[in-house]
Amino acid sequence: MNIVTHWWLFDMAPVSGVLRAVFYTGLLVLCIVDFPTPLQAAKIMDRTERVFYTPVLAMRLLGLRWVSPRVLSVVAKLTIAMWVAAAAGFFQPVTGVLTFLGFAFLHMVNAGALGAHHSKHSALYALLAMCFSVSYDFSLDGLLAQYVNWPLLVPDQSAFTSGFAPKLLLLVLSYIMFAGGVSKLLYGGLGWLNGDALRFYVKYSPSRWPFMTKLLVGSPVLCRVLASLTVLIELLAPVAIFVPSWRIPLVVCWIWLHIGIMCVMRPMYLVQMWCYLLLIVPSLTDHSSTTSAVSLGGLFTTVGMLACVVLITVLIRQSEEWPFTSVPMYSNGLTNGAVRAPSESELYERAVRAQRNQHRAWQRAWLPVDAMEEIVVRSTDDGKKHRLFQLMLENKVAKFVRWPQYAKVVRATAIADLAAKAADGVELGVCGPEYPATRLLHEVALIFKNAIPDWDRYDRIELVCRTDSGSVVIASVPLGTQEVRGSGDPQQRSESMRVEQYGELQDRLMS
C-alpha cells in the first residue's frame, strides 16, 4: 500500500456502528424539524411561483424544469425510509447510497427555490461520505449475519471499513470554511477585515440575542477583532486536513463561529455543526492501520484525489452551481462604512462583465438593505414607489418566493437586460418583449394582480437599479395590460419559456 492510499484510508478512525446510528438519527431529526431542508422540498415548491423557480444545471441536464410537490412528497418519504434503514445498519452500503441519492435529488430541486441556503450543503456532503462507510458492529446486518446467515456485501478487509469516509468529509468541510475566508477577501477586501461589513450585517439582520447585537453594533473595535479572527480561522481550515493535532481545535473554532452567527444573524448552522460529529469522534478514537493492500483502496484514493481537483476548480472559478458552494453569505465589503452603489454610467459595463463570469462586477445582495436592484410598483395617486416583495409580505401572500431566490432572479434579470441593451446600443429604460426585464415584469404583474385585492391602487410595475445618484428605471410595465386569471395553461407555457431562458443565463452567471 502506498503512502497516499494509507493517508486517505487510515489517517482517521473508521465510523463505528454506534457513531453511524447516532449520526444518521440526529441528522434525520434535524432535517425534519429545521426549515428549510430538502426533506421539506414539497412544501417549499408548493409556495414558490414558477416564474421565480430556476432549475439548476444538473436538473436541466436530466430534462427537468419543475417537479410537482406530490412527487417530492413521495421521494421524501422513500428517502426517510432508506435513512432509517441506513441508521440501523441494514443492507449496507446500499441503503446509505439510496439515502444520499434521495436527499441529493430533493436538495437539487430545492436549490432552484431557495436562492442561497448554504448550511444544508454539509448534510449532502456528509451523506455522500457515508456512502463509503460500512460498519457491522451495532447493525442489523451484523445481527442477521450472526443468527440467520445473512449475506454481508462488504468483506472485512475493505476500504469501506476504513477511515476514508470521515477523511473525505473533512476535506469538503475544510474547503467550505476556507472558501468562506477567500471570498471575504475577494468580495469584501479591507471592508471585511476592518469590521465595517460585519457590523453592517449584524445591524440589519434579525437577532436572536439583542444584547450581543447591541454590543457589536456599538463597538467598531470588537467587530474589527472578530472579523479578522473569522477570516483567520477560515483561512487556516486546510491545516485540519494535514495536521491531526490542529484538527479538533479548528473544528471547535468553526463551531463557535456558527454559534456566533446564530446569535446575531438569521442563518442557523445546526445541521453543519452536527456533521462535525463525523470529524470529532474519528479524530479522538484510537485505531489500527495496516500496510497490506485492502480491497478497493486504489479506487477510494482516486475518488479522494478527484474530489480535491474538483474543489480547487470550483474555488478558482468561484462557482455556485449545484452541488457546490464557494461564495458564503455576508461576504460583501463596504466603502466608508456604507454600501457603494455604482454610477449610472457604470451599469452597462458592470452588467457585461458580470455576464462574462466576473462575479465581483455586480454585487450580490444578502439582505434587502444591500440589494442593487429591486422590483417596485407605483401608486396611482402620488407615484410613490413600493417594494414588491414587501407588499406581498404585508398582504401575507402564501405563494410567492423566498427573498434570497427573489433577489437572485431579479439580479440575474437586471444583468441580462442591461447586457442585451448594451449590445443593442439602446438606452436603459427601453422596454420590449425582446428584453428580459420586460418579460419578467409582465409575468410578475399578473401574479401581483391575482394576489393583491386592491392592486388597482397601483398603475405601474418597474425594475429599478440602485446608483449613486438614485434609482434608475431599467424596465417599466403598466399594470392594466395583464388579464387577471388563475394558473391556466397560457401562463404555465409563458413561465416555462422564461425558465428555459433563465436557465441559459444562470449557466453563464453561476458556473
Automatic annotation (TrEMBL):
<keyword id="KW-0812">Transmembrane</keyword>
<keyword id="KW-0472">Membrane</keyword>
<feature type="transmembrane region" description="Helical">
    <location>
        <begin position="168"/>
        <end position="190"/>
    </location>
</feature>
<feature type="transmembrane region" description="Helical">
    <location>
        <begin position="269"/>
        <end position="285"/>
    </location>
</feature>
<keyword id="KW-1133">Transmembrane helix</keyword>
<feature type="transmembrane region" description="Helical">
    <location>
        <begin position="17"/>
        <end position="39"/>
    </location>
</feature>
<feature type="transmembrane region" description="Helical">
    <location>
        <begin position="297"/>
        <end position="316"/>
    </location>
</feature>
<protein>
    <recommendedName>
        <fullName>HTTM domain-containing protein</fullName>
    </recommendedName>
</protein>
<feature type="transmembrane region" description="Helical">
    <location>
        <begin position="211"/>
        <end position="233"/>
    </location>
</feature>
<feature type="transmembrane region" description="Helical">
    <location>
        <begin position="124"/>
        <end position="148"/>
    </location>
</feature>
